[in-house]
Amino acid sequence: MRTALPSGPGPVAPSPHVAEAAAALELRTLFATHYASIWRLLRRLGVPAAQVDDSVQEVFWVVARKLAQIDPGKQQAFLYGVALRVAASEVRRRSQDPARGDSEDVERLVDERPSPEEALEQARARALLDSILDRLPLELRSVLVLFELEGLDVRAIAEIEAIPIGTVGSRLRRAREEFSAHAKRLRVRLQAPRRIA
Amino acid sequence: MSKRTAPDSMDYERSEFEHSLLASARSDGPTPAEVERAWLAFEADACALAPLLPALGARHEAIPRAAPSAPRPWSATLRVRALKWLLIGAVGGGSLVALWPSRGASPVPPPLPVAVPGGAGTPEPLAPIEIPSGAEPGPQAPAAAATRAETAVPTQRRAPGPVPASPSLRRTELPPLRSGMTQESRLTREVAALDAARAALAIGGSARALRQIEAYHREFPGGALEADADVVAIEALAAEGDQVALARAVQRFLRLRPRDPHVARIREIEAAALERRAAPNR
Questions:
Q1: Which of A21, B134, B194, B269 is the most buried (most CB within 10 A)?
Q2: Nearest CA of chain A to the CA of B120: how many Å?
Q3: Largest CA distance in chain B
Q4: DSSP-assigned states of every residue in A85-109
Q5: Whole-Å CA distances, B265 to A34, A93, B61
Q6: Closest CA to B208 of B155, B279, B132
Q7: Tell me, what's the pLDDT at B54?
């Protein structure tokens, strides 16, 4: 929420310094409030674990620079929008240099952990989730993550993605279909007998 | 932007396996302590990049340099990216540093707040700004000071490139430290204390800002950021409309720090206050 500056007939109009201090305070508040959710969003959008801290900071660099231009009440949408662009950029870089990716991959997970029960362990489940999300095109992945994981409604997603609400709906439907199909295939593989080296 | 509070028509049947995968992501993320560390690193990087800004026309004077010895958890890649964003920002007319008043400097005078006039010899200590009687003393130090990690601490302001520091100006020597307190931790706490005062002032809490400045002077007698503290106090007095206390504080500041980089800012505040006072009579 944008910090309200003193108004009305005060003895001295707010100086530029006061306005700057308010902006700094707002930035700090945004950082404290949204850092974790932006971190999760970037992670789920495919930014490798080793780089996600850097990418979150990159998001906040952009926000810091643009803060004065963001309309009140739109900070979160702006943050998410920047995060989507940063993630897209990171994913693009990663696709050009696969060595930048996480060391974990689903093949190893499947080989070493055949039990579906064990797959419910949180960390491993996240790795599996990411392996599925990695298979979705970014435009579907982002809508799915924003809707299913961040809990945003279609109107908010349309605003962030700058696309019509109907497009959000159709992308969400396709994303779910693909997600379900990949999840089913992964589950089958997890249930298959362990390979013997 | 709204979040869904209840299932809506977009919800769909998903298997338990899918549900468990999606649920696993919700518990992911940094801890509050990690967020705080990230903030400190973010702040420190903003300070570290400040020297690169003058050529771009940014007001880098407002940002102090982070301590060279401070831990730098962020990668070189990130700094390159941050610089990229700053470059883009400068071209686009934005400036991160405009958001960084928490280091207490003014865009008008090039700040060198830890420098005092006089050349050799011990600098004359500046008495704390007198707090109007209506402002009662507050807590000793803001809570934020206690919570800040002792990393990425700006140790001293940098003389800005375009306006080289006068040879007659020299760095203030900090008073002896308490046992167990490092120079960096002291400065971290000083910065946090001033940040709190500025934050209070930013939201209209001038009386509170004055109390916090008073607490700063009690906590850090002869502190490295005394000039900054006095500037905040003068701004707060101007906001309070206390012309007498303001004039007294300005005069004392000018007498004790006639060549301080904040002088132009001090005069600006005083002029604005006088103008405001005279306006109804016009």
A1: A21
A2: 33
A3: 78
A4: HHHHHHHHHHHH-GGGS-S--HHHH
A5: 35, 46, 13
A6: B132
A7: 34
Mean pLDDT for the stretch of residues B183-210: 81
pLDDT in tens, A122-150: 778 888 898 899 999 999 999 999 998 88
Q: Which chain A residues are within 8 Å of B269, Cβ to Cβ?
A: 12, 15
Instruction: Reduce the DSSP state of residue B66 to 3 states and report it.
Output: strand
Q: Are the beta carbons of B176 and B223 closer than 8 angstroms?
A: no
Residues 47-86 of A with CB under 8 A from B: 51, 53-54, 56-58, 60-62, 64-69, 73-74, 76-77, 80
At residue A146, the pLDDT reads 92
Whole-complex ipTM: 0.71
> Mean pLDDT across the stretch A44-50?
87
The answer to whether A17 and B236 have CB atoms below 8 angstroms apart is no
> Which pLDDT score, from 0 to 100, does residue A99 have?
56
Which residue of A lies nearest to B100 if distances are taken between CA atoms? A24
Mention every residue, 6+ apart, whose C-beta is less than 8 A from residue B132: B210, B237, B240, B242, B245
The secondary structure of B160-186 as a DSSP string is PTTSPPPTT-EEPPPPPPPTT--HHHH
d(CA B279, CA B282): 5
pLDDT at A18 over 60: yes
The minimum CA-CA distance between B119 and chain A, rounded to whole Å, is: 30
Q: What is the pLDDT of residues B40-53, one digit of tens each?
A: 888 777 665 544 43
Output the average pLDDT for chain A. Answer: 78
Alpha-carbon span A171 to A81, nearest angstrom: 17
**Cα(A48)–Cα(B206) distance, integer angstroms:** 45
Measured distance CA(A79)–CA(B15) in Å, rounded: 32
Give the integer Cα–Cα distance in Å for A64 and A78: 11
Residue whose tokens read 């439907």: A173
**What angle do helix axes A75-96 and A49-66 make, rounded to 10 degrees?**
140
d(CA B78, CA B84): 9
pLDDT at B163: 31
Mean pLDDT of B106-116: 34
**Chain B interface includes A120 (CB < 8 A):** yes
DSSP A22-33: HHHHHHHHHHHH
Distance CA B35, CA B194 (A): 22
d(CA A91, CA A179): 19
Q: Is the confidence at residue A90, as pLDDT, over 60?
A: yes
Instruction: Look at the block and give the residue holding tokens 């009662």.
Output: B136
Q: DSSP of B191-239, one letter per residue?
A: HHHHHHHHHHHHTT-HHHHHHHHHHHHHHSTT-TTHHHHHHHHHHHHHH
